[in-house]
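In the previous chapter we treated chains in isolation. Here, by contrast, the input contains three separate entities that must be folded as one system, with a combined length of 516 residues.
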Amino acid sequence: MREKIIVGLALFAGALLAWNMNTIFTALPDELNQGAIYRIIYFHVPANILGMLGFGLGMFLSIGYLVTKDLRYDALAASVTEVALVFASIGLATGSIWARIIWGVWWAWDVRLTSWLVCWLIFGGYLMLRRAVDEPNQRARFAAVVSVLGSVNAYISYKSIEWWNTQHPQPVLSIRNGGGMAQGMEAPIWWNLLALACFSTILVMVRMRQESFAREIDTLRRMAHAQ
Amino acid sequence: MKLILFAGWHTLSDLEKRVNRNVQYMLLGLGAAWLIMFIYVILITLRERKLRKELDRVRRMVEQPNK
Amino acid sequence: MFLRQVWTIAAKDLHSELRTKDAWNASIAFSVVILLLFSFSFDPSSEQVREFSGGLLWMTYAFAGALVLNRSFAREMQNDCLDALIASPVSSAALFVGKSLANFALLFAVELVSLPVFVLFYNLQWGAAQVGPMLLVLVMGTWALTIIGTLFSALTVNLRLRELMLPTLVYPMMIPALIAAITVTTNVLAGSPPGLGIRLLAAFDIIFTLLAVVFVDTVLVG
């Protein structure tokens, strides 16, 4: 069953990604001011949305663990956070390359960029912390605390383009009252978000199974030592 | 979209150079996005393999404690 | 009752610190060393120093503060004092707030001593009007550093990689508060109004104090 879901999602995500790439490269014209480079937005924005949603979801799952003390919540929180970190990395990398052309620099220290980099560092620390603690319940507790504290920063980063006058573009998506894009240009962002969301669901599922492997190895080791 | 990757630099005007660089960086950016996903998939596959191997080893250890 | 427990813990920590003055001496010496090191990375007599003096000051405090804060819970490891404290009728929240207050007092004292050194080294001009806002931002910024530092000191106390994990977790967490404190300090030193940063700093203090008090029981007891 699980394999079938993964294969199905992979086929769907792959087909959708291919179709999106086709739209982005052949159907859409260059943007008036930015030229060809604006196409980076079709990965930059969905990747960062997934990163933020992932960190936020990780926070709720961490709270779920703290309330129920069920380690499955912790495993899911860890998986989601790790995948979110991968997408946050994509967001940072693509944004940096875009900035090189548009701003002339690889990095600018405005609030949006800084706060997002801080998030990246905190959740990187989250994963490092998980490796540093051996006892599963203690690991889950500590990781949950870091996840909740870190999510405050994720929220600051999300809101920063509204609260401050950042060098980073203000909201462009229509759901955030941006409306800064022509109709045909915004839709592929959402389609690519769907494709990448399916892809990240696969990654989370694989990652979850690895967590259960790790738990099983741990139990078997204990049994072996008890014998 | 204007792609002039193979033309010699000296024959290009400034505008063409700028367009060229723009396109190159677009490809670099999208390439980076794909590359990071690809690297993560490789990492996760390697970890899967390691975990399965370890699980097998530990299972055998439990079944035959003397080995 | 809660306040008395907090006070007992804070007094206990301050007493044991005043007896040896280990952290106190180390962090004052360290902050002077950092101020000295900073002076090599740029021209300390230039007019531009004013523009990043806030940054220098808070970097110094963040690093010197780490010396004080790291030891806060680690000190209780000897003779299993931490277990005894957790087993005692004092609640985790009271233990945490007490320790935070003690750390705050200590760090604030270190800052007050190193501030004149800083002003002296970097030729900053001070007016009487700047003392009030400066003290306010010092208190608020130091509380932010203290609350984060003390919570993570509790979190990493039992880890085998403590001295590696603590800085990688603490400094990123402190960054929003540091940025706010730095901009406000720079504004105050330049004689202009503190700006938006003071509100951000206040929000950070309130949110993270609440979160820390809520989570400290999870961290220490489970």
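Chain C touches chain A at residues 151, 155, 158-161, 164-165, 168-169, 172-173, 175-176, 179, 207-208, 211, 215, 218-219, 222 (CB under 8 Å). The helical segments of chain C are 2-20, 22-40, 49-74, 81-87, 92-121, 128-156, 162-189, 197-220. Compare these points with the single-chain example from earlier in the chapter.
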